[in-house]
């Protein structure tokens, strides 16, 4: 019995004949029988059945199920069947079959069975063809069964989920060939799209070059540009990010002054909301935030802050011009006072000599206007006494300190305004401050906005404009990448109450409109608009189907899809009735910062309405032991699509973690050149040596090719602080001084390494710090509106990025990590031994280490910042905690918990940390101490034990030094009115004594002549030649012969710079050739194979062991 017979309950003598339909049957029953014939026709063909093949059937007969439902509800179905002599089974089975076909979320079981049988039948019948389908690309390539299933399947929307190294490009190439040769599809009707030129070039190499199938292969940007050109008479100039930066930077610096409303918003943003406040509850994250944030004021940034102090060490008068406060809320208060022309001083000495924890009491601000003097204290807790960053004990201490300060001012009859971080009535603390000032008779004279803004623009050292422009450009770029339009600014504002975000949206909207206006005026378009507008043209049917005519759209690296790119391919598919094949790996989704949205991949079928998901799980790059570790690592995030990758390769110890010393001992003499980078270089060299030894053990004689992977581009420069490595600034290449031509090093960031493979990999930046791996850089919160933020797991995207780095190797991966600050990922790999077997540790590692701030307060654990303190005339480490909890300050962190205090023996001295005699523990000694025999200075000193008994944490005690000797009186005379030194407003901050930092060892060039040709050959930092001179000679001779053959000038083929790069970097593949200066696709087509043959033959020939020494046959350098 056939499939249709089982479905509809009747037998057919001829599968090709139509069912006999009696003229007496009701119309509805006739339609049911016609439905069965149509479905039988579909199922009878030897083809893969897609939903579009039977979707028309579902629509055509959509009136029948409601008709049957009506009969059932009215209990008339049985009567209808009996009165017309019909078969109830046929009706019931039609009803069930139709329901299955109409269910868009599931493929009917009989369709699935048909397709499975089709695939299995063709796997056998076309085995020989499929075996040889990519023979022209590589005779050794043999598609596995999963890849063949992808080739044979033909659903309307297909997602191919592939693992790292599973042959995605191979599968795409095979799919294209099968469509052309077996399905008869015109190559021009198959559109292959990828995201980068690098990926497109690889696909072109396989499909256009090797298979000689001339189907269009392009980036999204090129597709968008082509569609735009179809609809426009004149081409628009395509601009990149620098254009947007220039337009918005110029607008904010020049044109914005004409818009008073915008200027007011900008000043409000700069004054109160420039730095995004920390809004989390994690204390460690908060410490990281305040340790890297500079809380500077507008007054300081427009260079109007000038403060003279006497340096207690040098006794010289110093000018300070950088006003740094303790918190953003204090900055907001200072900016409010400045913008309303109220003279203020930050942390002044209180007018009465009162002590606060044995040091002079310094309120947050003192303000003056006319004869009015008022102190301001701002408290970092809410009006009802809460702060989720403080413990209950700290809150009680805070409340008591507030009460003590209020009583102190009452006692001395000084005017005090105090504000809280948040008020019960919900109004801002600046509003309360304003009300208090007005109540006291202060006049708030708002500075002219244009004047303030012009000062901000004119200030050479201003941080405001550039940072804001970068943030706006980032926002607009991602805003457009998500397909948003102007009205979305209003949509965002309607959903958000955050004042800072709403203010930013107003400013950004104005800049967005200005940018779009300039694009039109200059007849330009950017990449984002190009894709958005091309999708819109298609949606509005302004592009004829015949002008495009694609039947298949194949998208590579689909895990990087953004909303606008998704819109483009969906509109293209809709216009052309084209099938979509998307290939990618959600484990390698690493471009959220540039607009990719992972759920578009993981929810592929829901996004398109229906579809098919296939997996390619056999990897041809990594060993099984490595992919087990890498797969387990990335799948700790349960939101990732679960899959088990399989490999035929096996290797011992696939991941080797090499540690290095990351503590620089300042006391130790003979510290190696390069500091900690010397040890980093040592660790990398140890890994290279291990690779060379393994190669020798396996009988590999060729040069060891090693890919160095960093989290950031500057990781390459950091490594070259070690004298064992040299960095070529022009080509961004690293050379080994120790191993010379025995190794061929290349460097890529983890992002740029995606899609590539290497014989060996060394990850060089697995450390726990801001720019480590994982990176701990946080986006500005406003970007969350336009950038997909994956919080499904801690460091979700960084985890995927680390997976990418791990899976680039064909052999082992070495990971370089510091002993005391190992990456969180490294600790996980080593601690979870059952989950991650076969991970080897070379060296010592502190697995108990936690992320630390470099300089923390020994009392409360908060970060400290070092700056010149105007009150003490000393550079001090200052705790960034609120003074109500901890006011710790010290001149030397080696003193531990010894804090600077007011000397009780002299009027103007301070007790500071000084070294103890004969190497004993530090002590406190007076700044007025003198070592002369007559003891003319203050000799107050105390040991730590005495200090702990002497200190008093209370506030309000009178200073016992009042009336005692004043040692700095002679210096202070110079500060009195009439004796002030002549001052000019400094244009730049004072230059500190230059610190000795490691130097990057960069390559140099020396001019060398071969006959009449001059070559800038590449040398290392010590002058040794890195360019392979014998190879250079061979390539030059080839160029000479080729030029003579083609009757053209030699430099038209390759210039001398390109020849030197070829002889130095020695590319072995067409892809590596593309990275050489002066070589593009056209020149690869013309000369690529010949050049590669010369280099490969040269490298496989025994060469002198050390190529750094000069051959006497050559003339001297100039």
Task: Give the gist of this structure.
The chain is an alpha/beta fold and 1118 residues long.
Structural notes for this entry:
- It is a single chain.
- This protein has 1118 residues and is an alpha/beta fold.
- It contains 41 helices and 34 strands.
- The strands form ten sheets. The protein has a six-stranded parallel β-sheet with strand order 3-2-14-15-1-16, sandwiched between helices. A six-stranded parallel β-sheet has the order 21-18-22-23-17-24, with helices on both faces. A four-stranded mixed β-sheet has the order 7-10-11-12, sandwiched between helices.
- Strand 5 (307-310) and strand 6 (317-320) form a beta hairpin.
- The longest helix has 23 residues, at 499-521.
């Amino acid at each position: 019995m056939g499939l249709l017979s089982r479905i509809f309950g009747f037998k057919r003598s001829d599968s090709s004949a139509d069912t006999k339909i009696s003229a007496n049957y009701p119309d509805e029953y006739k339609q049911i029988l016609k439905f069965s014939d149509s479905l039988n026709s579909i199922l009878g063909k030897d083809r893969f059945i897609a939903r579009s093949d039977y979707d028309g059937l579902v629509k055509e007969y959509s009136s029948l199920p409601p008709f049957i439902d009506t009969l059932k509800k009215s209990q008339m179905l049985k009567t209808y069947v009996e009165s017309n002599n019909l078969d109830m089974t046929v009706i019931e089975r039609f009803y069930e079959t139709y329901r299955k076909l109409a269910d868009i979320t599931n493929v009917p079981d009989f369709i699935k069975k048909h397709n499975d049988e089709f695939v299995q039948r063709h796997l056998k019948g076309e085995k020989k063809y499929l075996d040889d389908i990519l023979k022209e690309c590589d005779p050794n390539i043999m598609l596995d069964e999963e890849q063949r299933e992808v080739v044979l399947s033909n659903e309307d929307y297909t997602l191919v989920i592939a693992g790292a190294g599973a042959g995605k490009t191979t599968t795409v190439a095979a799919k294209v060939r099968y469509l052309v040769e077996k399905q008869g599809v015109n190559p021009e009707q198959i559109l292959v799209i990828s995201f980068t030129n690098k990926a497109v070039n690889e696909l072109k190499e396989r499909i256009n070059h090797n298979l000689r199938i001339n189907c269009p292969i392009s980036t999204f940007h090129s597709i968008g540009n082509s569609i735009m050109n179809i609809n426009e008479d004149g081409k628009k100039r395509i601009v990149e990010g620098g254009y947007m930066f220039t337009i918005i930077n110029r607008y904010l610096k020049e044109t914005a002054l004409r818009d008073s409303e915008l200027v007011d918003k900008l000043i409000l943003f700069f004054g109160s909301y420039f730095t995004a406040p920390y809004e989390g509850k994690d204390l460690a994250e908060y410490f990281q935030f305040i340790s890297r944030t500079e809380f500077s004021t507008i007054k300081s940034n427009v260079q109007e802050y000038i403060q003279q102090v006497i340096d207690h060490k040098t006794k010289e008068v110093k000018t300070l011009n950088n006003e740094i406060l303790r918190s953003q809320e204090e900055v907001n208060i200072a900016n409010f006072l400045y913008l309303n022309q109220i003279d203020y001083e930050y942390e002044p000495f209180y007018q009465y000599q009162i002590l606060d924890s044995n040091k002079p009491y310094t309120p947050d601000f003192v303000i003056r206007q006319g004869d009015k003097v008022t102190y301001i204290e701002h408290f970092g807790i809410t009006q009802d006494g809460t702060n989720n960053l403080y413990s209950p004990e700290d809150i009680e201490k805070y409340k008591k300190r507030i009460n003590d300060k209020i009583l102190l001012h009452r006692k001395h009859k000084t005017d005090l305004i105090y504000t809280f971080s948040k008020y019960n009535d919900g109004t801002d603390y600046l509003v309360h401050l304003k009300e208090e000032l007005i109540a006291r008779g202060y006049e708030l004279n708002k500075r002219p906005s244009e004047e303030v803004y012009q000062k901000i623009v004119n200030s050479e050292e201003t941080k405001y404009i550039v940072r804001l422009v970068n943030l706006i450009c980032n926002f607009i770029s991602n805003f457009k990448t998500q397909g948003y339009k102007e009205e979305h600014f209003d949509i965002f504002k309607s959903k958000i109450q955050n004042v800072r975000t709403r203010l930013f949206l107003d400013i950004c909207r104005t800049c967005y409109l200005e940018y779009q206006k300039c694009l039109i005026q200059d007849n330009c378009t950017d990449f984002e608009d190009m894709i958005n507008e091309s999708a819109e043209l298609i949606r509005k049917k302004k592009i004829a189907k015949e002008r495009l005519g694609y039947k298949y759209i194949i998208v590579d690296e689909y895990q990087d899809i953004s909303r606008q790119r998704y819109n483009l391919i969906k509109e293209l598919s809709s216009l052309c009735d084209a099938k979509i094949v998307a290939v990618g790996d959600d484990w390698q989704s690493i471009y959220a910062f540039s607009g990719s949205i992972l759920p578009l991949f993981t929810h592929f079928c829901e996004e398109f309405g229906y579809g098919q998901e296939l997996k390619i799980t056999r990897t041809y790059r990594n060993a099984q032991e490595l992919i087990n570790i890498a797969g387990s690592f990335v799948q700790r995030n349960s939101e990732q699509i679960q899959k088990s990758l399989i490999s035929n390769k096996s290797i011992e110890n696939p991941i080797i973690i090499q540690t290095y010393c990351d503590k620089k001992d300042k006391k130790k003499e003979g510290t190696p050149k390069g500091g900690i980078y010397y040890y980093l270089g040592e660790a990398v060299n140890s890994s290279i040596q291990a690779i060379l030894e393994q190669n020798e053990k396996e009988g590999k004689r060729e040069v060891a090719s090693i890919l160095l992977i960093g989290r950031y581009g500057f990781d390459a420069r950091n490594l070259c602080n070690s004298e064992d490595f040299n960095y070529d600034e022009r080509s961004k290449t690293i050379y080994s001084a120790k191993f010379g031509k025995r190794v061929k090093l290349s460097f890529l960031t983890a992002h740029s390494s995606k899609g590539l493979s290497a014989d060996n990999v060394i990850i060089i930046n697995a450390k726990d710090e801001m720019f480590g791996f994982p990176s701990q850089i946080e986006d500005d919160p406003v970007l969350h509106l336009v950038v997909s933020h994956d919080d499904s797991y801690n460091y979700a995207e960084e985890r995927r990025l680390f997976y990418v780095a791990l899976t680039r190797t064909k052999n082992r991966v070495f990971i370089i990590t510091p002993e005391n600050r190992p990456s969180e990922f490294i600790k996980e790999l080593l601690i979870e031994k059952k989950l991650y077997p076969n991970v080897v540790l070379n060296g010592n590692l502190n697995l108990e280490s936690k992320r630390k701030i470099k300089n923390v307060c020994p009392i409360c654990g908060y970060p400290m910042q070092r700056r010149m303190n105007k009150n003490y005339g000393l550079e001090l480490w200052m705790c960034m905690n609120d003074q109500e909890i901890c006011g710790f300050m010290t001149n030397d962190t080696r003193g531990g918990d010894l804090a600077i205090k007011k000397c009780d023996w002299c009027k103007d001295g301070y007790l500071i940390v000084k070294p103890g005699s004969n190497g004993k523990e530090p002590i406190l000694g007076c700044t007025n101490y003198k070592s002369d025999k007559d003891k003319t200075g203050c000799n107050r000193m105390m040991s730590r034990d005495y200090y702990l008994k002497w200190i008093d944490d209370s506030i309000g005690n009178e200073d016992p030094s009042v009336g005692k000797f004043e040692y700095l009186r002679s210096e202070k005379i110079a500060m009195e009115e009439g004796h002030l030194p002549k001052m000019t407003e400094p244009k730049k901050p004072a230059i500190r004594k230059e610190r000795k930092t490691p130097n990057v060892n960069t390559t140099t060039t020396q001019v060398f002549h071969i006959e009449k040709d001059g070559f800038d050959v590449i040398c290392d930092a010590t002058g040794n030649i890195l360019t392979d001179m014998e190879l250079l000679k061979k390539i030059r001779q080839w160029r000479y012969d080729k030029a003579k053959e083609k009757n053209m000038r030699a430099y038209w083929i390759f210039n001398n710079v390109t020849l030197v790069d070829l002889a130095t970097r020695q590319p072995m593949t067409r892809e590596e050739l593309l990275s050489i200066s002066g070589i593009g696709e056209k020149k690869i087509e013309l000369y690529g194979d010949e050049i590669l043959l010369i280099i490969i033959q040269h490298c496989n020939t025994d060469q002198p062991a050390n190529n750094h020494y000069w051959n006497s046959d050559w003339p001297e350098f100039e």
